[in-house]
Amino acid sequence: MISRRDFLKITAFTSLLGLGGAFTINALEKESGQKVLQDIKAMKGKRWAMVIDTRKFKTEQDFEKVIKACHKAHNVPEIINPLHEVKWIWTDDYEHSFAGTAEEYISEEIKHRKFLLLCNHCDNAPCVRVCPVKATFKRADGITMQDMHRCIGCKFCMAGCPYGARNYNFLPPRDYIKELNPEYPTRTIGVVEKCTFCNERIDKGLLPYCVEASEGKIVFGDLFDTKSEIRKVLSENIVIRRKVELGTQPMVFYII
Q1: Domain covering 39-255 in this structure, CATH number
Q2: Domain ranges of the chain
Q3: Where in the numbering of this chain does the 4Fe-4S ferredoxin-type domain appear (predicted)?
Q4: Model confidence over 145-183: pLDDT tens digits?
């Protein structure tokens, strides 16, 4: 166990290197045994996870409502060119969503469904391991965070993520935002961004925007709480996850 004097020395040193943010917060929490700057209304959870009921998404409007709620709230730029597009949540077909683990003999109806995709907030997140400046880091509750201010745009996290959940800002994002949300910071050209499970809402005791907009089609909760709704849903349905063979332990489940 390090002394308080040594702890302060390490904190000061890492801050000078520009690496202090996430490390310092984690160290402070470990040292004090308390969460730092946590809102008293914050949702309490040891391991946040999400379940998407693909059976309930029947129309394009069902998907659009969820995607728009997320993108509008987080000032995600609307760029048509697929080479430059930025997305936090999107859709794809069964074959591409579950490449590698897709069942050849699954029903044709499921093969033709669309699936909502987003960051999987993996337990064993490769993006966290490869980020050289700790712009990508894990919160104690399992959320994989992206500090857009710390990001240096090296794209290592994009190469490490097997889910295509990260996007690089090749163009100035503000030029492609039709309706700016002043309550959420915009990004700059040259940085990577992604879904953060709406950590800003969780810390205020609110559900993620996509969950709220889905009107019961998406369930969000603490996977470690045996009495939670998400555990009940998982126990009563057949679910699949994306690319589990990679050992990333994704925390987004799909009811089929």
Answers
A1: 3.30.70.20
A2: 1-37, 39-255
A3: 142-171
A4: 999 999 999 999 999 999 999 999 999 999 999 999 999
